[in-house]
Amino acid sequence: MTTAPISMSHAPGEYLHSFPGGVKLRHYKRMSCLHPIARPPMPDKLSLPLKQHVGSIAEPVVTVGQTVLKGELLAKPNNPFGALLHAPTSGYISAIDQQPVISPEHATGACITLIPDNEDIWHPSCQRMIPDWRHMPKHELIEHIATAGIVGLGGAVFPTHRKLNTDFAPPIKTLILNGAECEPYISCDEMLMREHPEEVLLGGQILAHALETVEHIIIALEDQMGEVEDDFQRARRLIDDPRIRICRVRTIYPEGGERQLIKVLTGLEVPSGGYPQQLGIVCVNVGTAWSVKRALVDRVPLIERVVTVTGAVNDPRNWLTLLGTPVSHLLKISGGFKQNVSRLVMGGPIMGMAISDDSISITKGFNCLLALQTHQLRNPQQSMPCINCTECVRVCPAKLMPQMLFHSIRTDNTADSSNLSLQDCIECGCCDLVCPSHIPLTEYFRWGKSQLRSRLHEQQRATKSELRYRARETRLKTEQDQKQQRRVARQQAASDQQLAQQNIAAALARVRNKQAAPEKPNDQDSDK
Amino acid sequence: MKFSWSGAPHVPAQTSVAGVMQQVLLALTPGVIALTWFFGTGVLIQLVLALVFAYLFEYLMLRLRKQPVALFLSDYSAAVTAVLFALCIPPLAPWWISLIGMFFAMVIAKHLYGGLGHNRFNPAMVGLAVILISFPLIFTHWSPPRSLAETQLSLSHVISIIFTGNPIVAGWDAITMATPLDTLRTGSARGLLVTEVRTASVFGDYGGLGWEWVANWYCLGGLWLLYRRVIHWRVPLALLGTVFILTTPLYLFDPDANPLPLQHIFSGATMLAAFFIATDPVSGCSTPKGQLLFGCGVAILLLVIRRWGAYPDGVAFAILVMNMFAPLIDRYTRPRVFGHPG
What we know:
The complex is a heterodimer. Chain A is an alpha/beta fold. Chain A folds into two domains: 5-327, Rossmann fold; 386-518, Fumarate Reductase Iron-sulfur Protein, Chain B, domain 2 (Orthogonal Bundle), CATH 1.10.1060. Chain A has helices at 138-147, 160-164, 188-195, 197-211, 226-239, 258-266, 286-298, 327-333, 391-395, 402-410, 414-419, 430-434, 441-516, 519-527, and strands spanning 46-49, 59-60, 67-68, 73-76, 85-86, 91-100, 108-116, 174-178, 216-222, 244-249, 281-285, 304-311, 317-322, 341-346, 353-355, 368-373. In chain A, the strands form four sheets. Chain A has a five-stranded mixed sheet, sandwiched between helices. A four-stranded antiparallel sheet of chain A has the order 1-7-6-3, with no helix packed on it. In chain A, helix 4 crosses helix 5 (226-239) and helix 4 crosses helix 7 (286-298). Chain B is mainly α. Chain B has a domain at 17-177. Chain B is 61% helix and 0% strand. Chain B has 16 helices and no strands. In chain B, helix 2 (42-64) packs parallel to helix 5 and helix 4 packs across helix 5. The chains are: A alpha/beta, B mainly alpha. At the A-B interface, strand 14, strand 15, helix 9, helix 12 and helix 13 of A face helix 1 of B.
């Protein structure tokens, strides 16, 4: 239960702990695992959003009308949290403009539109021989990963090279490759692990090499992924690295969450507001590890990813999809919709984001395209008052009190929300899934968190203005004082001068008197 | 093509308030049947009366408060309140007892505090407490258990007693009897030893004759609710455990002055309270530690009232007092948040 790494009596993954809360869900994964991963036919155009990573948008380095080759750099970030973007195929840039992108506000975002020439010619920078990663120093390896534009493919899209830059953390002893894909329907990681287990392990080895001090490489699988473990055992025998351990964790949502998985494998809790690096742990998605292998061994930047197309489509399956492929193209080749599909989701049914327009395209964080029928959806209008049944408390993996948070947010009591640790909510949606009153709790929490953030921002601004006001007051006062001092000094000087003049005058007078006076004694003398 | 938009999660919860309440009603069924078996058809009449009045007041209040009537009438919460109330009043109580009880339960305790989910106090217990305080004599008119009844009352007799308040066949003494807890109370007051009191025919193996079987069936229903995860184990375990732990040393120390621990558990409304009343989520505690404290608190108050109070059973008062403390307990027993220092 303690968070001190010293208390770790077992090697990570040797003994499986449990995390609080969680919900058992039906998987719905089988349906999309029936066919091997395939490449879809080339779409007519690729639309590549300039923001496919956590930071602000990247800046294009190509111009409209320019011809590009496969793997050529298209855009580079202007801040440390961004990632490079490469051309998924050869063709020409037809536009750089605003296109619909995935966002909570149905907004548009800057996108590069690439019309494929169907030649698929590689850029000379790709697929060339590079030195073996085993002999590469850390910084060079990280540089290569950054140049390949790799971000977390589990959905967080945090740049991987930033994760590996652990200069300020304790030595990283444990690397976790997260294959616990806990949300229903999504099977892209499972299929990837089934088809490329040694490549995933190799990616893990490369990452471990980049982290330098890694002693344990743990592959976390779900216990329902039976065959995958056999594949990994075989791959491990081939690779023969004693650091690798294959762990099967319970299939319980949200076990695949980074904090939950770390708790299960090591018994440690990532501190609130902190990072796994603080515990000497780095956790990456298996897809990310695969991309790292492709970048360092095959010398291919991140230009494609496995996407599960599933739900109410006629032919659910996994596609190795080029970034920028329109969602509508994937749907078409997956057999089209079944009846009454009214929602498209990027990701799973619980944490996924709804897509309002099927013209948007696949990005680096796009793991699953899920079509849901009307009868499967929740009805947002139908909610009853909270009856305090505490089912949400039982399932909350962050050990929050969701029903109390709900009241604090409804009454706009940000102080209370913050006391109840609203900022620790991971928005996993477990509380929604068990709420008998059908309250959209996670929606409330997202809103409450944004309120907290804006409140914090406001407070910071207020503090800043107060400081500025205080500084100004002090400055004015100092000026005033100085002015006063100068005035006093001047007066002093003036009076001094006056005094001096008086003194001089007096002295002169005395001198004059003196000059006049000696005659007197003389007179007296003369009188004698 | 355009698609509908909404925040995650996209799939609905599999439970509903009505579903939860239905489970509670289902779990109460064995107890209701047992109570009817031992204490006559009056139990069912009281049940019907309470249900009718509960829904009447619920409907009126929903209309007055301009709430969606159909949505709230179909949530079964009024039914749970009515059934819990009806199970706690004597089977031959006059009809207006339910009227008054349900008025205070539904109108005052529930709707005037904001309706479903907002009541600070358990509505059924508010109704019961009002009746207990205002008409304490009613509770001495309890039907004897089946095997001890001198006169078997027909349904028409029961109905006429309830509606006219007049025991036609014989005097009240012939058709009613003191409850085991009442017998114990008056016996102790007369200076009798518990063992002497327990020789009275109203006592069974542990608790009251008939009562202990009803308690068994309540317990069965409660276990079903635990199994279906409608209630959590903490409140019932803390309540029953505290009753047992507190009464055992007393009994071992002086069995003449203190009743068997099991008698406390198997008589009166202890079992009903443990599984169905103290577990009411709205008016109870919501933190894990708080639920344990709540159960303990109810148990202690229950024993105190039984031993020293003016009433033979104190479930209603014990629950209401703990309801007062629930928000405070919740405030100071919040669990440690994941990733926060201990």
